[in-house]
Amino acid sequence: MKIFQLTVLLSLFSCSSPPPLKKVASVDINKFMGRWYVIANIPTFLEEGAHNAVETYTWEEKEKRIDVLFEFNQDSFTGKKKKLPQKAFIYDNKTNAEWRIQMFWPLKFPYYIIDLADDYSYTVIGVPNRKYLWIMARNPSLDDSTYQQILSRVKQLDYDLRLIQKVPQKW
């Protein structure tokens, strides 16, 4: 079963030929750390049915990496609690906007910070082939105006807006 999952993950993150995905100019890693609520996404198979999805980033100084904990309730707000720990490695140290996420050793997948509020109240994460996307915020909801502005920018980056799904949040 693990081999099948790894094969699927490889195909999910494999690169095709869209134009290069633009990343933000700079990310302050200390400000970026902490809890992020997943507001919407183009989900991977692991995220289907996620409710109250949250990613928490913690800088691991000794290892010079980011520990990532993805948590959610499966299929409903009272569904089984799932926790998926991951590791992230900063790939572009000049901007801190390009990481490699490791869900399973030894595989690392590209993770680009493609939009980020000046006050770090929301962020958008993408992958080079544009098959996956995560819109996250420091609070469990975003006002509609901000959300629509984000979608407008995401569309300009050649993402298919029809694939984006809101993630149910109820706290």
Overview of this protein structure:
Helix content is 17%, strand content 38%. By secondary structure, it is of the alpha+beta class. It has one domain (2-15, 23-166): Lipocalin (Beta Barrel). β6 and β7 (122-126) form a beta hairpin.
SSE arrangement:
Elements: H1 2-13, H2 29-32, E1 34-42, E2 50-60, E3 65-74, E4 81-90, E5 98-102, E6 109-116, E7 122-126, E8 133-137, H3 144-156, E9 165-166
Antiparallel strand pairs: 1-2, 1-8, 1-9, 2-3, 3-4, 4-5, 5-6, 6-7, 7-8
Which terms would index this structure?
171 residues, Lipocalin, 3 helices, 9 strands
Mean pLDDT: 91
Order of helices and strands: HHEEEEEEEEHE
Low-confidence stretches: 3-13
CATH topology: Lipocalin
Find the count of extended strands (DSSP E, 2+ residues): 9
Overall tally of structural domains: 1
Shape: globular
Percent of residues in beta strands: 35-45%
What is the percent of helical residues?
10-25%
Q: What integer value in Å does the Rg equal?
A: 15 Å
From the structure provided, what is the oligomeric state, counting identical versus distinct chains? single chain
Task: Write the CATH architecture name.
Answer: Beta Barrel
Which structural class fits the helix and strand makeup? Answer: alpha+beta
Number of helices: 3
Characterize the largest beta sheet: strand count, sense, and whether it forms a barrel. Answer: 8 strands, antiparallel, barrel
State the end-to-end distance.
34 Å
CATH homologous superfamily (4th level) name: Calycin beta-barrel core domain
Highest-level CATH class: Mainly Beta
Strand order of the largest sheet: 1-2-3-4-5-6-7-8
